[in-house]
UniProtKB/TrEMBL annotation:
Coiled-coil ranges per UniProt: none
Protein name: Vacuolar sorting protein 39/Transforming growth factor beta receptor-associated domain-containing protein
The Vacuolar sorting protein 39/Transforming growth factor beta receptor-associated domain, residue ranges: 7-110
Domain Vacuolar sorting protein 39/Transforming growth factor beta receptor-associated zinc finger: 368-405
PANTHER family: CNH DOMAIN CONTAINING, TRANSFORMING GROWTH FACTOR-BETA RECEPTOR-ASSOCIATED PROTEIN 1
Organism field: Bugula neritina
Length: 406
């Protein structure tokens, strides 16, 4: 055994000095050299990456991670590590089964590259590794001091892994808001626009976040009125959303789009009509001596996706408006009413015909007689009938009651 240690140690010294490209292969292939000589030699020749691998093979992971973290931070240099760098260290950390070590050394990666750092945790989540210290809740708390990494991790949970957990969705919405406020302080208009689109898209698409929680944060700042309108819509408060879009933001096209989108979630025609009538009321309240608003009113009435009760619209429109302005709307309303009437009559006639055919079949069955003689056999088990009771099945077969049940 001593000779083997001597041979391995001698090879290690040779490779460390003359053939560093073969050094890692030696250390990873059952190397059994003298420990103190190995450490001293690798340090002397600056083979720090090889030393970290040696400690890793010896299960002294804390020492390995310390060396790699120093290499990443450029506290020590080793050209054999330069091509591996941060990605290599993050992969090694990700694969460790020791959660304490991962949490101790993860900040080294997170500070250098938040995305690569966050991926250490998303990969572990996707692999299904169970560890209470690294469950999503604990990981979110740990990543709080790394905002970019936290955003990446939450997006992975919610958007990629499709985790339908309210706290995750609410936390992501809050993180988007924090990022937006930070961009505003920097006055970075391009970043503000990008983050705002991302936030608004998430608020529209997700149904899992706490609307009241996010709305409470958004309503503190008039700058976030578009987001407040989305949240009021999510809460079912259509009137408040339309008030913001029409009176505060003057976003008339956005108001119509809001009604079209919200109407898809309404279960009855009356609810859809009430929604569009609310917008019509707001338009009309601003239309007096305002030709531009009259155009918006007419465009709304003529929108093929809008749903109105023509009689109620006629009551709401001011008396001094020209009939010509409403001619297209009234014509479409009449056509729609006639179409609905024809559809209803056709449906009624089809239902009557179904009833007629069913009743015909019923009467036909009632008029049919079945003769049960002593030699009549069950058409299922082929045994004689011992009782007068039987079942006639839909296909006309006569069987025992017990056979019909099976």
């Amino acid at each position: 055994m001593s000779e083997k240690k001597d041979v391995h140690t001698a090879l290690m010294k040779l490779y460390a000095e003359k053939r560093p490209s073969d050094l890692l292969r030696l250390l990873q292939s059952g190397y059994q050299g003298h420990h103190s000589d190995t450490v001293d030699t690798l340090q002397t020749f600056g083979r720090f990456h090889a030393l970290a691998v040696y400690y890793q093979q010896a299960r002294e992971l804390d020492k390995s991670f310390t060396i790699w973290s120093r290499l990443v931070n450029k506290e020590i240099e080793d050209e054999s590590f330069d091509s591996l760098g941060l990605s290599y260290f993050s992969d090694v950390l990700c694969k460790t089964t020791d959660a304490t070590l991962l949490l101790n050394y993860a900040p080294v990666v997170l500070e250098k590259d938040p995305v690569i750092g966050a991926q250490m945790f998303t990969k572990r989540f996707d692999s299904g590794i169970q560890d209470k210290r690294l469950n999503p809740e604990s990981t979110i708390e740990f990543l709080t001091r790394f905002p970019e990494a936290l955003t990446y991790y939450l997006e992975h949970l919610v958007l990629s892994a499709n985790q339908q957990v309210e706290s995750f969705h609410s936390h992501l919405a809050m993180v988007y808001l924090d990022n937006l406020f930070s961009a505003k302080q920097l006055n970075n208009k391009v970043l503000i626009e990008s983050l705002r689109k991302k936030l608004q898209s998430f608020l529209r698409q997700s149904d899992k976040y706490s609307v009241s929680l996010i709305l409470g944060r958004v309503e503190r700042d008039d700058w976030l009125l578009p987001e407040a309108a989305i949240l009021h819509g999510k809460a079912g408060n259509d009137s408040a959303a339309l008030e913001i879009l029409v009176n505060e933001l003057k976003d008339y096209k956005g108001a119509e789009s809001f009604c079209v989108n919200q109407s898809a979630n309404k279960t009855t025609t009356i609810e859809r009509q009430r929604l569009f009538e609310t917008l019509l009321h707001l338009y009309l309240s601003k239309s007096k001596d305002n030709e531009r608003m009259r155009v918006y009113v007419i465009d709304l009435l003529n929108n093929p996706k809008a749903v109105f009760n023509a009689a109620k619209v006629a009551e709401l429109i001011p008396d001094d408006w020209s009939i010509a302005l409403l001619s297209k709307f009234m014509l479409n309303s009449v056509r729609s009413s006639l179409h609905d009437g024809r559809q209803a009559r056709i449906a009624s006639q089809l239902a009557y015909w179904d009833y007629f055919l069913a009743n015909k079949d019923y009467l036909s069955l009632r008029s049919t007689t079945i003769s049960l003689t002593d030699n009549k056999r069950c058409e299922s088990c082929h045994q004689l009938f011992k009782e007068s009771a039987f079942v006639r099945q839909a296909d006309g077969r006569v069987v025992h009651i017990s056979c019909a049940k099976t």
